[in-house]
Amino acid sequence: MVLNLKHLYDIVGEEIPFDYVIPSDLLGSPSGRRFPDGAGVKGRAYNRAGVVFLDTDTAFVLETECDRCLKTFTKEFSFASQRILVRSLNGEDSDDYIVTENDVLDLDDAVISEILLQIPAKMLCSDDCRGLCPHCGADLNLGSCGCGGEEQ
Length: 152
Hints:
This protein has 3 helices and 7 strands. By secondary structure, the chain is mainly β. The chain has one domain. It has a 5-stranded mixed β-sheet. It has a two-stranded antiparallel sheet with strand order 1-7. Strand 3 and strand 4 form a beta hairpin.
């Protein structure tokens, strides 16, 4: 979704609400992780006292493999974000600002960047996942493997 922000930058009190779904094919599959339902995005861009803000609430289901036992599982994520939109920066570099060239914001790109930052580097099916036996490969969540490798 592309937002034209020209009126937003020029008119104090102006607001652009949005509520849509980023399709799963746009989200890709980073590290083999999938977004079966896409990502729901609600929020608004608004001008308050000459400062333009972007508020988003994002929710999605991630389908991935456990990094310890390799079982496929799904996990729900949701998060809120607020950023300041600017036409340009004067030598400053901050993650709090999004520069919008030609007064246009590709909202999909901004939200996808936020999603990728929210996903943990290591995904576990449960906090107490025991993983696989390093010797025989048995799933230790189902019980002892019997090879004795887990005790060595």
